[in-house]
C-alpha cells in the first residue's frame, strides 16, 4: 500500500519556524518530523510515499533531491575531473512522489489531487506533523476485518480537539465541535482509506474531516481503531520542545527503526 502524507499547510501555530519552512520540515533531532513519520511507516514495510506539498513545496523537493547525498559518506576528487565517490548507501528503500497540491487547498482537496498516483488502490494516510507508537500492521488488519470505507486512529490527547462519538461496534456515529472534553476520543490521523473515498472529495475546498468523514460516519462506513499508547502532534513550539526532549533523551516512543 502507498502512504499519503499531508504536508502542504502553512503551520501558522508554529510560525516561529514555519515562516522559513513547511511545518513537516521542522527538525526533531537530526532530521525533519516528516522523515520521522516516513521511517516509522517504513519499519512496518510501507515504503511507497506520496507527499502532498503546498506551502514552500520547493524546500521539500530540494530536501529529497539531495537525500541520498546527505545521508552518505562522499569523496569529491577535484583532481580527477570532479569525480564523486559514494562510500556507503545510507539512503532508504523508499519511493517518494512529491506532488504540489496547491497553496490553499484543504485536506480533502489535497488527497483528491493525488488520486491518479494511487491507481485505484487502498491507501494509508496521515498528517505530516504527528508521531505515535501505533502498530500500523494491526491497524490495517483491523480495517480488513471491519470492511469499512475508512478507518482512522482514535486517540485521547486532552481537551483541544473535536470529539468523536464511537459506538460499541467501534463505528463513528458523529463528530462534535471542539470543546473541553473528558476523556473524549479524537481523530489522530494514521488512516486506512478505500478508493471509494474519492467520490466524496469534490474539489480543493473539500475538508476531509468535515463533510466526507461525516457522511461516512452517518452511513456506518467510518471505523475507529482505538490507540491507547503514545501520540503527539507538533502544533506549537511547546509541542516541538516536548518531542525534542523525548528524542534527545533516547526515550522517543516512535523511535523503533
UniProtKB/TrEMBL annotation:
InterPro entries: G1P_cyt_trans, G1P_cyt_trans-like, NTP_transferase_dom, Nucleotide-diphossugar_trans. One of its GO terms (molecular function) is glucose-1-phosphate cytidylyltransferase activity. GO terms for biological process: O antigen biosynthetic process. Keywords: Nucleotidyltransferase, Transferase. It comes from the Bacteria. Pfam families: NTP_transferase (PF00483). This is Glucose-1-phosphate cytidylyltransferase. It comes from Endomicrobium proavitum. The lineage of its organism: Bacteria, Pseudomonadati, Elusimicrobiota, Endomicrobiia, Endomicrobiales. The gene is rfbF.
Amino acid at each position: 500500500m502507498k502512504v499519503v502524507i499531508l504536508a502542504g499547510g502553512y503551520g501558522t501555530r508554529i510560525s516561529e519556524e514555519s515562516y522559513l519552512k513547511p511545518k513537516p520540515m521542522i527538525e526533531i533531532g537530526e532530521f525533519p518530523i516528516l522523515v520521522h513519520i516516513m521511517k516509522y511507516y517504513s519499519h512496518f514495510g510501507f515504503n511507497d510515499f506520496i507527499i502532498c506539498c503546498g506551502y514552500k513545496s520547493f524546500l521539500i523537493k530540494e530536501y529529497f533531491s539531495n537525500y541520498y547525498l546527505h545521508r552518505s559518506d562522499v569523496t569529491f576528487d577535484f583532481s580527477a575531473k570532479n569525480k564523486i565517490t559514494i562510500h556507503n548507501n545510507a539512503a532508504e528503500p523508499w519511493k517518494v512522489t512529491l506532488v504540489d497540491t496547491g497553496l490553499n487547498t484543504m485536506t480533502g482537496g489535497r488527497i483528491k489531487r493525488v488520486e491518479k498516483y494511487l491507481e485505484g488502490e487502498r491507501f494509508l494516510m496521515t498528517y505530516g506533523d504527528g508521531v505515535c507508537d501505533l502498530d500500523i500492521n494491526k491497524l490495517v488488519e483491523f480495517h480488513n476485518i471491519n470492511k469499512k470505507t475508512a478507518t482512522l486512529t482514535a486517540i485521547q490527547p486532552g481537551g483541544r480537539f473535536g470529539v468523536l462519538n464511537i459506538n460499541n461496534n467501534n463505528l463513528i456515529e458523529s463528530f462534535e465541535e471542539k470543546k473541553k472534553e473528558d476523556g473524549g476520543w479524537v481523530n489522530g490521523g494514521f488512516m486506512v482509506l478505500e478508493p471509494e473515498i474519492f467520490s466524496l472529495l469534490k474539489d480543493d475546498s473539500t475538508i476531509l474531516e468535515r463533510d466526507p468523514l461525516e457522511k461516512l460516519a452517518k452511513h456506518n462506513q467510518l471505523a475507529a481503531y482505538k490507540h491507547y499508547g503514545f501520540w503527539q502532534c507538533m502544533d506549537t513550539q511547546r509541542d516541538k520542545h516536548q518531542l525534542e526532549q523525548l528524542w534527545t533523551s533516547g526515550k522517543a516512543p516512535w523511535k523503533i527503526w
